[in-house]
Amino acid sequence: MKPLGKRLEGPMAAKLQSNDPKTKSPGSITFSKAATHGQWGRAWEVDWFSLASVTFLLLFAPFIVYYFIMACDQYSCSLTAPLVDIATGRARLSDIWAKTPPVTTKAAQIYVAWVTFQVLLYMLLPDFCHKFLPGYVGGVQEGAMTPAGIVNKYEINGLQAWLITHLLWFVNSYLLTCFSPTIIFDNWIPLLWCANILGYAVSTFAIIKAYFFPTDARDCKFTGNFLYNYMMGVEFNPRVGERFDLKLFFNGRPGIVAWTLINLSFAAKQQELYGHVTNSMVLVNVLQAVYVLDFFWNETWYLKTIDICHDHFGWYLGWGDCVWLPYLYTLQGLYLVYHPVQLPTRYCLGVLLLGLLGYCIFRVANHQKDLFRRTDGCCLIWGRKPRVIECSFTSADEQKHRSKLLVSGFWGVARHFNYTGDLMVSLAYCLACGGGHLLPYFYVIYMAILLTHRCLRDEHRCANKYGRDWERYTAAVPYRLLPGIF
């Protein structure tokens, strides 16, 4: 259950080697033996709030997804109508469940074929896009060093998988007609059950693997609570064999490759039902395709984000990427099948500009941070030498180190201005659906809560790490997301 913007590890700092003779190399700053008992990855111990949150999500997240999809299928996307019907006695839970399509053999065949195809593309076809696309970095790439000191290699071929998949989709839609382009929408709820089965199966496999045959036992984190271990994961980079990395595969595929196919299927259904595709549906398809293509174009960069460098693989990622992402991130397109909206031209252009502006802020802000780190601050940001705050911190092995915190470019506007770009893009998705219902606005509400929580969590870690230097930084850049407001 990831947000739009991927994050580089830690604050926007460039790590420097200290003059202290005890200082180690940047790799050993994070990955010494002492550090393996520090703050890498998720928590070592579970407090009551974390346990309550984990229990709530395990119990209710699947029902939240079902509720949204059921509301569209049975109540024309009204979020309140099911509750009113139940409260007034016009319907019972059993009545709603009885009207819900069950898993079908056809849906199971579609889903198995889909996942199998993506596994084959991931495992068997070396990347060739990097050979002819200028600026694209693909092929075999190294990830960040793990706490155990392991540097994993990855076959970066997500863009290639996306292109092949969509090429075959369009060839089928316009030439072969082996199946209808509305096939995803027509089997949407039966496919939901298949996605749940895979999500729980891979999460259960991951926890069993972590206990009995981990890829590297030094990269495991166990707590005394099984539910927390199951949800947040134990293994850092669980692999089957040498090449099949569960975290990278499920983070990027099959859910994100499917995202644009799902939207195309919704557009095809709108065409079938109404004889045309509305500009709002085109807008949603375009804006969300920009994000998906950005994700795969920057897949190598993604190896250095917190999703890979910080998160463990458990139910949160396994089930979340199979179910939460493809079913709730595509609510705008689903809504527009039931409620086609033709937007005024000026409004449509305004939403498009908002989405593209948000994307540019997100991408440029992350580029500035990445450039700053790769060059240890020896670069130009907005045509000038970057302004920095020198700071120091003590790692888990009690060694002192120096860092630089960036206060130039977008990082001088707000401390998490890349998240601001995320929220602008998210809002554009929702505004494309007009103002008729609350349901399509779930995404921006969810993103606002999630990113605000991430801001607070990140800053808590940075405050503990940098102490008074962090106070100097927050004084120089006083706002987190919105200058003058928050």
TrEMBL record:
EC number(s) given by UniProt: 1.3.1.21
Protein's cellular compartments: Endoplasmic reticulum membrane
Pfam family, one: ERG4_ERG24
Pathway: Steroid biosynthesis; cholesterol biosynthesis
Compositional bias ranges of the Polar residues kind: 16-26
UniProt region (Disordered), positions on chain: 1-26
Membrane topology term: Multi-pass membrane protein
Cellular component, GO annotation: endoplasmic reticulum membrane
GO biological process: brassinosteroid biosynthetic process; cholesterol biosynthetic process
Keywords: Cholesterol biosynthesis, Cholesterol metabolism, Endoplasmic reticulum, Lipid biosynthesis, Lipid metabolism, Membrane, NADP, Oxidoreductase, Steroid biosynthesis, Steroid metabolism, Sterol biosynthesis, Sterol metabolism, Transmembrane, Transmembrane helix
GO MF annotation, one: cholesterol-5,6-oxide hydrolase activity
Main location (coarse class): endoplasmic reticulum
Bilayer-crossing regions: 48-69, 161-184, 190-212, 273-293, 347-365, 426-451
Reactions catalysed: 5,6alpha-epoxy-5alpha-cholestan-3beta-ol + H2O = 5alpha-cholestane-3beta,5,6beta-triol; 7-dehydrodesmosterol + NADPH + H(+) = desmosterol + NADP(+); 5,6beta-epoxy-5beta-cholestan-3beta-ol + H2O = 5alpha-cholestane-3beta,5,6beta-triol; cholesterol + NADP(+) = 7-dehydrocholesterol + NADPH + H(+)
InterPro entries: ERG24_DHCR-like (IPR001171), Sterol_reductase_CS (IPR018083)
Stored PROSITE patterns: STEROL_REDUCT_1 (PS01017), STEROL_REDUCT_2 (PS01018)
Function: Oxidoreductase that catalyzes the last step of the cholesterol synthesis pathway, which transforms cholesta-5,7-dien-3beta-ol (7-dehydrocholesterol,7-DHC) into cholesterol by reducing the C7-C8 double bond of its sterol core. Can also metabolize cholesta-5,7,24-trien-3beta-ol (7-dehydrodemosterol, 7-DHD) to desmosterol, which is then metabolized by the Delta(24)-sterol reductase (DHCR24) to cholesterol. Component of the microsomal antiestrogen binding site (AEBS), a multiproteic complex at the ER membrane that consists of an association between cholestenol Delta-isomerase/EBP and DHCR7. This complex is responsible for cholesterol-5,6-epoxide hydrolase (ChEH) activity, which consists in the hydration of cholesterol-5,6-epoxides (5,6-EC) into cholestane-3beta,5alpha,6beta-triol (CT). The precise role of each component of this complex has not been described yet.
Quaternary structure (record): Interacts with DHCR24; this interaction regulates DHCR7 activity. Interacts with TMEM147.
Record-stated family: Belongs to the ERG4/ERG24 family.
Protein name according to UniProt: 7-dehydrocholesterol reductase
Species this protein is from: Lipotes vexillifer
GN (gene name): DHCR7
